[in-house]
Design goal:
Length: about 425
């Protein structure tokens, strides 16, 4: 499995481009211990001399301002059985198809817990001098291209999860692209598509059937003139069981979701999948105990929360421990396992006319986790590395445990009217 991410480089000076290239070429990062080879290549250029060749192209076409370069990363799951040489070969094939006519530096970094490729692309076409432009669909297309090349090399996009025995796989919120809600841009409305036309939904429906796994897919949904933050639940045969639309929509500094989404109208739905009845809440939903209780009352045996949360630029606090404890409480109060998948990494907003010249950044703090039915965290990810977490549950045993605690037997709904009246 490989994930393609765009690295927004807010500084686009020539010196900034040089610094990124030098970082990508560091010996300690690109040296393959098995072969002794430097995993450095170039498309339409000599990778080791990428900066000078980029500059020569810019000089020939008199274009040394504006967007000078683009930077992408292709990360491979630690669970994937793949060598550094294979990763580099995949990266080179990807770059050749992704950016034809542009000079691309391709380096494979071997110094982290997971192998990953860096791509630095000269924004100027080396033959005709045209500038490379990105649009709202670029990242989705690149990810689809990457998936295809990985499969050609014998890798299945979700196979690492299947190897770990996973039956239900959860990815983060709005994983198709950057967390676009950090800024307000009218052109980003174009990201939204009807359920059956969404690229991620179509893609993962095929994979769910191929691997016989269940996948809740977070996506930006368009229904006529209405736009929702939604999750399509795909069963192990590839059938879309239904869609949940996010109920609680936040509006905070750089989490500006009310600009993009209206509150969901589906209610708190559960889905009977091949591997159990699941409930799905989306990010901000996870802070409300009513979400988890309603899902439990509707028969959920597991609760999943695709998430995109990170730094709090104005509050200047680390909300991660609070975030975790909130869901641990929901788990314990309903005697039900909770699974949360969050983003990682820094995402920067570059000022432009479309966003009112906003400059900002968010650092998503990962820390994805799985609890047991008592709220205890039994599997935990780090803040800054891609991770595959798996856990196994006996749903029949948990059901008996839930009955034994009497939580649902002793409820007093007639006393809870204040919740809806205030």
């Amino acid at each position: 499995m490989a994930t393609v991410s765009f690295i927004p480089e807010s500084h686009q000076s020539i010196s900034a481009m040089k610094a990124v290239i030098e970082y990508c070429l560091q010996q300690k990062k690109v040296a393959d211990e098995d072969s002794g080879r430097r995993l450095v290549s170039g498309v339409n250029c000599n990778g080791e001399n990428a900066f000078m060749e980029f500059m020569a192209t810019k000089a020939a076409h008199h274009k040394k301002s504006g967007m000078n370069f683009y930077h992408y990363v292709q990360s491979f799951s630690p669970s994937e059985s793949v060598t550094a040489e294979q990763v580099h070969e995949i990266g080179l094939a990807f770059a050749q198809k992704a950016w034809p006519g542009h000079e691309v530096l391709v380096t494979t970094h071997t110094d982290a817990a997971h192998l990953h490729n860096h791509f630095v692309i000269n924004s100027v076409h080396y033959e005709n001098g045209k500038k490379l432009r990105q649009n709202p669909g670029t990242l989705t297309k690149l990810r689809s291209l990457s998936d295809g090349i990985c499969q050609q090399h014998g890798l299945s996009v979700l196979e690492p999860y299947k190897k770990d025995g996973a039956n239900i796989v959860l990815l983060p919120e709005l994983f198709e692209r950057q967390y676009f809600c950090q800024e307000r841009r009218y052109d980003y409305y174009n990201f939204a598509k009807p359920t059956l036309e969404n690229d991620a939904v179509k893609h993962f429906a095929k994979l769910a059937k191929e691997l016989e796994i269940v996948i809740p897919v977070s996506f930006y949904e368009r229904d006529g003139n209405r736009l929702f933050n939604s999750a399509a639940v795909i069963d192990a045969d590839g059938e879309i069981l239904g869609v949940y639309r996010k109920t609680h929509i936040p509006d905070d500094h750089y989490y500006q979701e009310k600009f993009y989404f209206i509150p969901g109208d589906t209610g708190f739905k559960t889905f009977k999948t091949k591997f159990g009845t699941i409930g799905v809440g989306i990010c901000w939903d996870q802070w409300f105990p009513e979400t988890a209780r309603a899902l439990a009352l509707n028969g959920a045996e597991l609760i999943f929360y695709p998430t995109a949360i990170g730094s709090e630029p104005i509050l200047e606090c680390d909300s991660m421990p609070h975030w975790r404890r909130c869901m641990q409480g929901h788990s314990a109060a309903n005697v039900i396992p909770v699974i949360a998948a969050n983003r990682i990494g820094r995402e920067d907003v570059t000022p432009c006319d479309e966003n009112g010249n906003q400059t900002s950044s968010l650092v998503f703090y990962g820390s994805s986790f799985i609890t047991n039915e008592t709220g205890e965290i039994i599997k935990s990810a780090s803040r800054d590395e891609e991770t595959v977490l798996t856990a196994e549950f006996d749903l029949d045993e948990i059901f008996q445990n839930r009955l034994g605690w009497g939580i649902f037997r002793d409820r007093r709904p007639d006393c809870y009217k204040v919740i809806t009246e205030k």
